[in-house]
Structure formats: structure tokens, C-alpha cells
Amino acid sequence: MNRKSTATAARGGTVPDVDEAARAEIAARAWQGLRTLVLDRHDRRREVCDALGMSFIRAKALRHLVAGELTMRQFAERLAIDPPYATLVVDDLQRRGLVLRSPHPSDRRLRMVSLTPAGTRAAESAERILNRPPAAVADLDAADLAALDRLVAKLLG
Amino acid sequence: MNRKSTATAARGGTVPDVDEAARAEIAARAWQGLRTLVLDRHDRRREVCDALGMSFIRAKALRHLVAGELTMRQFAERLAIDPPYATLVVDDLQRRGLVLRSPHPSDRRLRMVSLTPAGTRAAESAERILNRPPAAVADLDAADLAALDRLVAKLLG
DNA sequence: CCAGATGGTTGTACAGATATAACATTTCGC
DNA sequence: GCGAAATGTTATATCTGTACAACCATCTGG
After folding, report:
1. Which CATH class is domain B45-130?
2. Any idea where the domains of chain B sit in the sequence?
3. N or C: lower Cβ tally within 10 Å for chain B?
4. Do B154 and A144 touch (CB under 8 A)?
């Protein structure tokens, strides 16, 4: 099924395939649990939309601009939307006074999108809601919390 | 900010607030990492939609029916959609031959929605895609995997 | 039996998202 | 300079999802 098990089988390994299967099962269960945790138990998207009074993709847009200004094209790619829709989203955010378009100093084809102070505040508000750990995580004891932190860091590479 | 820190402060605890703040910071970082992992790095919704040729809510509908048949109302509640839209979704899935409506034996107001064999296969296909652990998880060594499994179980209560 | 509650459907309206083609402007390689 | 490519916008169409009002059938409690 995967590299490791075939290699083991190929050299007539002493470790039976059962272990590999058990590992896969644990991995599947853990992953499924992580999905349940993030997507079912503690999905805060609705809360963010209500708090900011905008669709989730607009909130996501603001959050992606916190790191710095982007060209329209980069903006569209980051949000996995196509350029025409990016124009609509930025139009809307601009009407709300949350972002502004400015010309690129050297390439006059490009338009840089950046956050206004109000946009920055809105983005931070969204981050605060999304990143607030659920009680289950916050209430872990110090050892478990450290273990989780280490594992997450490892998983993110 | 939370029960523990106030209690500590109240009895003039020897443990300084800094520890509580550090804990909160670790929890926030871990939670943020979990969100990144599930939502940004390994979001398989698109893949499921492409594989099944339907919108994600329809795939979600099929998955919720695997456990057994539901009334239209239960179905709508499980998917967090309103009854009229539930009708549209079931209509569509029925046209595709993936679900069927049958009368309730005793209450003739109710209509039970259940999976057809084809619907069951589609639902299982979706589960397989969604629950396939990403390489980062599958490649953890046995100890880390066990630790993750234990933590996830704990977090899910 | 009758009034009210429940379950499901139909219809309508609208916001959100996605895809495509067409267009003007600007840049860049030749 | 000129044609090709890149960038952003406009327009159009379609699909998806959300919300609300109205309706019919059925059940429940009196």
C-alpha cells in the first residue's frame, strides 16, 4: 500500500503487515478526529461573518492582507478565486473603507491592494475569533498542551 | 480571564500570571496550527466534489445518511439547512439515484430519507477521501502517532 | 369532531460564488 | 516599433445557498 510496507514485505521483514495496518488505522482515526474537532465542533466561520457583517471570503481576504499589500493577481491566487471575482470582492471591501487600491510604482499594469486602518482592525478582530482556542484545548494540562504544541509544529513541517 | 487564573489570583497564588499567559499562548498557537493543518494544508472538499460530481453539501448529506435513515426534518437539522432547501437537496440526490424517500410506517406526515446502494458507495467514497490522513500524519513515528491519537481522543471528550 | 401543532413541499427573492469571454492598458522580447 | 503576453476590469451566465411566506396533509389533545 505504501513505501514502507512494501519494503518490509520485500525483504521478508520480521515486522508483520498487521503493524503497518494498525498504524494506518490509528493515523486515520487521529486525522478524522482532527477534522471533527476543527470543522464540526469548533467552526467559527459563522461567528466571524456575524461579527464583521460580511461573507467569510471577505473576512478571509482581509486576513490575507495583514502580512502586506498584494497585487490583484496575488490576491486572487491566495484566496483561490478567479480574477474577475477578486475585482468584485475588492470593490466591496473598498466601498466599506477596509482596503484601498494603489498604483505599483514601476509597473503601471499592477494595482496593489492593502488594508486601511479600519481594515486592519477588522482583520485582527477576525483573527481573534478564529484563533481563540476552544475550551477543550485551553483546559489541557501543561504536559498535554506541550505535547500537542510539539506535534502540531511537527505536522506543519 | 478564565476560572483557573482568577482562582489563583484570588488566593494570592504563588504561581505568577505569566504561566497562565504562557499556557494561553501555547494553546492559541496549537489551535491555530490545527486550523491551518485541517483548513489550509489539507482541505479535501474540492477533491470530494470533483470525485462525486456534486456540491459539498450534497456529499455531506450522503455521509450523514450512512448511519441510517432520517426524516426530512432530522436531515435538515443535521446539515444545518432549512427544510425548503433540504427538499431541494433530497430532490437532487433522488434524481441521481443516490437516496430514496419512503413513508414512515405509522406517521404518514413523515418521509424517511435513506441511501440507495449507489448512494452508500458514493458516501463511502467521500469518507475515504476525507479521512485519508495526509502524509505528515501518516509518516509520524509510532510514539508520536500514539500521542496524537490519545490527545485527539481527549479533545473530543 | 375540531382547533392547533407538526412535517413536508412549493414558490419567490436574493446574496454569494464560479466560470467564461471580451476588452483596454501596459509591459517586454524580438 | 511591433506583436505577444500579462494585468485588471466589465459583462454575462449559471449554480449554490439562505430566507421567508404560503400551502396541504396529517397527527394530537381536548
Report:
1. mainly alpha
2. 16-42+134-155, 45-130
3. C
4. yes
